[in-house]
Amino acid sequence: MKLEDQNILFLTRTMKLGGTENVVLQLCEIFKPLVNNVIVCSCGGVNEQKLKEMGIKHYTIPDISEKNPRSIVKTIITIKKIVDKEDITIVHSHHRMAALYAELICDKNILKIANAHNTFHDKKTLTRLAYRNTKLIAVGEMVKKNLVEYYELPSDQVTVIYNAIKPFDGKISPIPLLTEYRENGYKIIGNVGRLSEQKGMEYFINAVPGVIEKFPKTKFVIVGDGEDKDKLVNMVKEKNMDEYITFLGYRSDIQNVMSQMDFIVLSSLWEGLPLTPIEAFSVGKTVVATAVDGTPEIVQNGINGILIKPKDIKEMVSNICYLLHNIDVIDRFQVSAKERYKEFSFEKLRMNYVEFYRIL
């Protein structure tokens, strides 16, 4: 394929804050210099500003997850007009409904690509229909396995390209609160992610009393925003854990924040291939992470981090305490984490995506 002749439409649900949206931004950065035109369609979000700064046109469309028949018809008409107006040659989707819209709208001359960002066990007929004429990219081996085994899609239809994070520039901008904790002799444990059911933050919060009992000079910092924020804040208050648990809110400088912590906990209940451990490894921090879906493809138990069962508060407490008691283990894991990061570097992602496109 001649990349310079292509007009790419990245079709996604939102451009809010999140892992999928981050991948869309990365792909825009990769392909803008290589193709004729890149545009993005979504229902919008704060990352529209980043697209604007990159010189990427964004079209606001109805939420593609909307089930109302009138909205579905409106969305089909809207996307079809954009595809025709921009002379789109490739539609690259980042949501199952986005892929379904592409299947319904695009003629045989338009190439369809879709990223599978998570594992699912539902909507089998819809998913098979959405992906039937689409080249698929799975963000991890477990995501591919889910597509092949549960959805019964051909293995050769799915290519694995791991998510990635750009390297940290090393310029640490001190966060006053974390600096204060450090100066007062506290260890700092972080949990970074969207405040939603998926990330299992309530289990992290429930683990804090057990850790504090043994290591009272420990602070827990939750970084992120989301629909469960109020519920989680109230939960901390009800447990009288305000002194130990801090909500830092959304941060655009995740690597900078992580670099000022001792280690990270990932308490997710499900994942595709999570960015959080890659971000942690990029700044040489180890993780205690739930062994769900693609996470064990990044975190090697006993080598660069510790894997635990999801929802197991007792095991989470035990392993957090183990690291706090064994600083030499943290140091050893951090060396391995830095090395492991090389497998998930942005340059590797760039090379893999460009090669994927070129051979189509």
Automatic annotation (TrEMBL):
Organism domain of life: Bacteria
Statement: the UniProt record of this protein carries the keyword Transferase: yes
One Pfam family in the UniProt entry: Glyco_transf_4
Keyword Transferase: yes
Domain Glycosyl transferase family, residue spans: 184-333
GO molecular function: transferase activity
Keywords, comma-separated and alphabetical: Transferase
InterPro entries recorded: Glyco_trans_1, Glyco_trans_4-like_N
Domain Glycosyltransferase subfamily 4-like N-terminal: 18-165
Name of this protein: Glycosyltransferase
